[in-house]
Amino acid sequence: MKCARCLLQLQGLRLVGQSASSAAQYGTLLQSASSTQLNFLHNTQHQVLRRFHGSPACAKSRPVRAEVINEDNKKSDGSLVTYDNLFEQVTKEAKTKATFIKVVNVFLKRDVRRRGHVEFIYAALKKMPEFGVERDLEVYNKLLDVFPKEVFVPVNFVQRMFNHYPRQQECGVQILEQMENYGIMPNIETKVLLVQIFGLKGHPMRKYQRIMYWFPKFKHINPFPIPQQLPEDPVDLARLSLTRIANDRDAKVTVYQLPCTDITESGEQITLPHVIGIQSPSQMELLAKHNPSKPVFVEGPFPLWLRKTCVYYYILRADPTPPDEKVEEPYDPERCFFYPLQLDLDLDRDLGEEESFDVEDLDEGPVFAMCMTSREDEATLNQWISGLQQNNPILGQVPTLFRLDARPKELQGAADTESGHHHQRPDPETQREERQTEKEIVEDEPPRRSQGMKQ
Amino acid sequence: MSLPTIPRVPSARLLSSLLLHQQRRLLLPSIAPLSAPTRLIHAEYRRPGKPKENRWRKVNIDFSKGVEGIKKNFTLLKNEFFDRWVGPEGKPILEHMLEQNRVVWEFRGPESLEHWTLSSDREVGGQSEVYLKLGRNSNTCFLYGTLNSTPPRDGETRYSGYCTMRSKQPLASFDRKKHHDWSSFNTLHLRVRGDGRPWMINLATETYFSHQKDDIYSYFLYTRGGPYWQDVKIPFSKFFLSYRGRIHDTQHPLLVDKVNSIGFTLGDKADGPFQLEIDFIGVCKDYAHTEECAYEMYKRNPEV
Questions:
Q1: Cα(first)–Cα(last) distance of chain A, in Å?
Q2: Does B297 touch chain A (CB under 8 A)?
Q3: CB spacing of B226 vs A203 below 8 angstroms
Q4: ipTM of the complex
Q5: pLDDT, tens digit (0-9, with 9 covering 90-100), for B233-291
């Protein structure tokens, strides 16, 4: 090893001597025989010569600057050092895409043969989320670029049969698998790189083909698509989620209060939460038809997941009308001119024409409105109700009960009227007062009062 | 050409069969031990490193259980015998031939929850939880829990965070396997109310070869979230074949005449609580749907 080094140093000097014209330069080179300078020369020669004997001094820990690559720190103890070191050194700076690419460039420039590229790539794949580049296709292509080209391409059928360079193929597959996990579609550059590195008939190519077959098939199958970039503004986010759950395109979103921070005279900072509600015309009709003697409930918070964020919403609903009180309203024939809404034919329908399922229709009571707010307490919800009252005057006469829960739970049903009575007990007499919004604020204590609540 | 290492994404089916067996041991009255199908016990997945369990310690021989077992099995046998006089599968032949819709799973009481097995990545050392209970009105089932995708620190598992609910295999008298025969239907119809998370519906069919044991036909169930119920209709032609979590290259249409179980899986890498309410699961025949398989069936992976 040492002899090879010396040989190459001499070779390097000779080459320098040939290329440099002035003898003075040669002289200075001989005189300044410090190891750093020689090694620096050494390194430049590396890029020119292909060295077949001895390995370059693999410095495992290096400074990050790609311009000056020092080969001084050769570890003589021979301990196993992982490639995470390179990434950890960058942690002192900001962890961005630029620094990530810089680290990869350091590795690339270090050795033309790219020794240890498999471990480096595995370390890089693990570090990607920290740098925030896990959804960036360019970075994946750059990582694929780390592989030396044309070395792993099988040349004949025997090599193709016997899983040529299995470790590298597995590494390539893992890069593609991380891409697949994050849902990133590879592009033509990826394909070209894969062909150059592994050839057309390797496992990474197969994986690429599978990704290119299945991803387009499943890209648009979500009937309720969520945008990749959710709005940052909580008001916009609330608007998006409320229109999503409203199930009605005529539903109107009303912003009852925008979030703002006020400073009162005493110097206190009051943050007002945002209150956004949604109500559709059919819901308004249902509320108008609601029996004022029956209470309406504000229930919540219920969770709604949008990709990785969970938002909570509240609903205003009532118990379903018991069957004896149901009034069948006749269909208005002028509602639809294209086809009759109600047919009174006396045709015999066969078993083969029975098109509905034999299940009882679940009637959980009408939902009148939904809202989302950032601060989840009765005062804010009161604001919502008063805002709703402007469009639905019946709310002034109907008692409103608050069934809030510290934790989200499922909707309560009609069978749970016991707990409903429980809540009404505190204030039964004042229910009949007209023109006065009644708010009986009752909080649910999870395990005790209501039956069957989520534990 | 096979790759040396396959990343461990254990299939829910193997693990639910493990949980199934545990449940049978703990909760359900076990019939005389010899009638417990030995195939199920063999099929349990034993994680490398876990000590082998002595099968005979689990056996619980009790006279009252034996009597219950005899009663149950002979009632089933009697029903099977006399049902044939009514018609195929106990329904009159006209109804069997002409039915358009059939409700397969309903949740109208606590005994309906006995048909379902729950599983989560707790089995492999993860921290997700999943629970099932009856919803309000005792008319729906409520599947809820928490998802946690930190992988267990055992050096071999790389991804984690899943929860599943799977229906148990229908059993005839004396614990013989029975299959769902949906040959006259072509669409799966569910009424669910989720919280916006994407779920996966898995159908497991009866297979001939033991290698095909973990063949699962899956499709996605996207929930909208919100207080309204969502009707989901998925034709059987849309289900794609996957094995142990990896989608298969050669696809073929789902064979509906011997369906063993249906399952719902959540694994969307979003840590946090989840909930799903299911009203009913049924199958129906959609005359307008004539597709056999939504995926190309020609050979797409020529030999290397």
A1: 69
A2: no
A3: no
A4: 0.80
A5: 999 999 999 999 899 988 999 999 999 999 999 998 999 999 999 999 999 998 999 99
> Is the entire prediction scored with pTM above 0.80?
no
Across the interface, whether the CB atoms of B101 and A354 are under 8 A apart is answered yes
Task: Read off the pLDDT band of B7 (50, 70, 90).
Answer: very low
Among B residues 45-84, those touching chain A with beta carbons less than 8 Å apart: none
Contact at 8 Å (CB) between B207 and B257?
no
The Cα B202–Cα B291 span in angstroms is 20
Rounded Cα distance, B222 and B218, in Å: 13
Q: What SS3 class is residue A63? A: coil
Q: Does residue A207 contact residue A177 with C-beta atoms inside 8 Å?
A: yes
Assign A184 a pLDDT band (cuts: 50, 70, 90). very high
Question: Which residue is listed with tokens 């014209």?
Answer: A21
User: Quick one: which of A69, A129, A71 has its CA closest to A100?
Assistant: A129
- Sheet (strand A296-306) strand order: A252-257, A275-279, A367-373, A309-318, A296-306, A400-404, A439-443
The pLDDT score that the predictor gives to residue B242 is 95
Closest CA–CA distance from residue B130 to any residue of chain A (Å): 12
Three-state SS annotation for B47-113:
CCCCCCCCHHHCCCCCHHHHHHHHHHHHHHHHHHHHHHHHCHHHCCHHHHHHCCEEEEEECCCHHHH
Distance CA B21, CA B3 (A): 32
3-state secondary structure of A238: helix
Q: Which residue in B106, B137, B189 is closest to A415 by CB distance?
A: B137
